[in-house]
Design a protein that fits this description.
The protein has about 550 residues and is an alpha/beta fold. It folds into 2 domains: about 230 residues, Alpha/Beta hydrolase fold, catalytic domain (Rossmann fold, 3-Layer(aba) Sandwich), CATH 3.40.50.1820; about 220 residues, Fumarylacetoacetase-like, C-terminal domain (Fumarylacetoacetate hydrolase, domain 2, Alpha-Beta Complex), CATH 3.90.850. Helices cover about 30% and strands about 25% of the residues. A hairpin with a 2-residue loop joins strand 20 and strand 21. It is elongated, with a radius of gyration of 28 Å. It starts with a helix and ends with a strand.
Length: about 550
């Protein structure tokens, strides 16, 4: 008897075979070029046709003189607002348009993407396909509203020679590869992400390595890149190009599988290479490309309204069914946009007590991002900090922990969290709660709007073994008047267990803790409204912080 898995696989292959004979019908097709604008293309070609006499388990076409884009639209329920331009391979002599075009487009559409399959000109040099791809991406971005897509979430996926075209577009998008035709050619052509599946044409022979002209266009603004190759194929293309991306600091993920050959597309396989599609979806999700339209809309509205004086949106109100994962997706969007030129200094832990978790409707601690621009050194002085009266700023006494090692995985015990700490230090947070503009908030709302403090004061650091974090008592006074007293043992299950939970929450939100990062996770006592005056925060054995708050003009 045929095993159930094998029967399912056989059924799927039969189904895809029937689809191959009658490709999936696109929802729309449009021309890449207005009539008569490619007069420089003087190739003598036959009529476009299916290639004969080249045995393959898929069909290919050649003599393509009229480039088009086929559009595949997801359902409204599936749509995630991300668009992908598909570039089939074929050695620049033909297009493997069946399995690297139609089949790929159909799969991507089922995942919620709006798909644009490029039928570029072949045979010919890569420059013809690059011209077609650059024009196609500009057309897609200029018509983003028509297609219900996010103009900042348009990427490419190329296979074999199509991946070479995608690589050139990713690295040379600042150049115009054809004479401008109309206003559309003023539209940016940079992809927001690049996907290279068993790419060809990326290496040169002498000296052997990634093509020098291609590498010359790689810089720290090059789009995040995802690469897949089988080791038993000519994977040197991916290996050398990936090294060039790494040298430039481009966010890159590479999957090199032992077996798979060339041309596997998105078809099922008993080899591990068949799992690349799921790895790809996970990668896209880590870059926000799977975010729901409601999350994208919330983030865009917040960024527009945050510098004003009117009401601010709440994610829990605009998307009542949203989950905490969506809040972290919104957080990533906000902090990426608002702090493009800033660096991450560390993370804020919130809702560390059982009571605060109950009031915020969460079942554990939360985390936000701290930026280097907000850090104020209060080690040997009493810095002056100005606060706008409309900012809803509060003052919090905290314990900070400086992390000693990169962490991108779960910490399993409180003792492991303690052992990962290089320094412990007193911290004063000055978060802007925006409570008067947001109204009642849940944990989801706090996370979605970042939760981290725009400004925070750090005192002198001590070795972690020199003070018991659970025994620290902090008093905060303004002009000599006691505002509050807080204790380290207020943290749920103790400071080290709380730090462990915060580290794991940060990792679960898709972040990696870097060595030297500051985690503010030890709130001591309640919060106080920020009012002008001279503040003294005494942490006992941990030290003290003095500072002046003044009202901004």
């Amino acid at each position: 008897m045929t095993p159930p898995r094998s029967r399912l696989l056989l059924s799927f292959l039969i189904l895809t075979g029937s689809l191959a004979a009658q490709p999936v019908t696109p929802d729309a097709v449009f021309d890449v070029w207005p009539t008569g604008t490619r007069a420089d293309d003087t190739r003598e070609l036959e009529a476009e046709h299916v290639l004969e006499g080249r045995p393959r388990p898929f069909y290919q076409i050649t003599d393509v003189a009229h480039p088009t884009v086929s559009v595949f639209l997801p359902t409204a329920e599936q749509r995630n607002s991300t668009a992908i331009l598909v570039c089939p391979g074929g050695g620049l002599q033909r297009l493997a348009i069946e399995h690297e075009g139609f089949e790929v487009s159909d799969w991507l559409r089922d995942q919620g993407f709006t798909v644009f399959m490029l039928k570029y000109r072949v045979p010919g040099p890569y420059t013809l396909g690059l011209q077609d791809a650059q024009r196609a991406l500009r057309l897609i971005r200029s018509d983003a509203a028509k297609w219900n897509i996010d103009p900042d979430a348009i990427g490419t996926i190329g296979f074999s020679a199509g991946a070479e075209i995608a690589a050139w577009l990713a690295t040379h998008y600042t150049e115009d590869h054809y004479p401008a035709i109309d206003a559309i050619d003023e539209t940016p052509s940079q992809p927001n992400f690049t996907t290279l599946i068993y790419p060809g044409g990326l290496v040169q022979r002498n000296p052997f390595g990634a093509k020098a002209e291609l590498v010359a266009g790689i810089n720290d603004d090059t789009a995040p890149t995802f690469i897949v190759h089988a080791f038993d194929d000519f994977s040197q293309n991916s290996l050398h190009y990936a090294l060039a991306l790494k040298a430039a600091g481009v966010p890159t993920e590479v999957h090199l599988f032992q077996e798979g050959g060339h041309g596997f597309g998105v078809r099922p396989s008993g080899h591990p290479v068949g799992e690349w599609t799921q790895l790809y979806l996970q990668w896209l999700g880590s870059h926000g490309m799977l975010d729901a339209p409601a999350v994208r809309s919330f983030a865009a509205t917040w960024l527009t309204d945050v510098d004003g004086t009117g009401p601010l949106p709440r994610l829990s109100a605009s998307a009542p069914d949203t989950m905490l994962a969506d809040a972290y997706a919104a957080q990533r969007r906000l902090v990426t946009t608002q702090h493009k030129s800033d660096t991450v200094a560390g993370f804020k832990g919130g809702a560390i007590t059982a009571a605060s978790q109950t009031s915020l409707q969460v079942d554990g601690p939360l985390s936000g991002i701290l930026f280097a621009s907000g850090q104020i050194d209060a080690g040997d002085s009493a810095p002056v900090v100005s606060v706008a009266p409309t900012d809803s700023t509060v003052v919090e006494t905290e314990i900070g922990f400086r992390i000693a090692v990169d962490i991108g995985y779960h910490v399993l015990t409180p003792e492991q969290a303690r052992d990962a700490v290089a320094e412990i230090l007193p911290v004063i947070e000055l978060p802007n709660t925006r409570s008067t503009r947001m109204g009642p908030t849940t944990g989801i709302d706090l996370v979605a709007t970042n939760l981290g403090s725009a400004r925070f004061l750090v005192g002198k650091a001590l070795p972690p073994g020199s003070v018991d974090a659970n025994a620290v008592t902090a008093t905060l006074r303004r002009d000599g008047e006691l505002l509050h007293t807080g204790h380290g043992n207020e943290a749920a299950n103790g400071q080290w267990a709380n730090l462990q939970a915060i580290i794991n929450r940060i990792v679960d939100s898709g972040r990696t803790l870097r060595s030297g990062s500051l985690i503010i996770s030890g709130a001591l006592g309640p919060v106080d409204a920020a009012a002008p005056g001279h503040y003294v925060a005494d942490y006992g054995d941990l030290g003290r912080i003095e500072f002046e708050l003044t009202e901004a003009p």
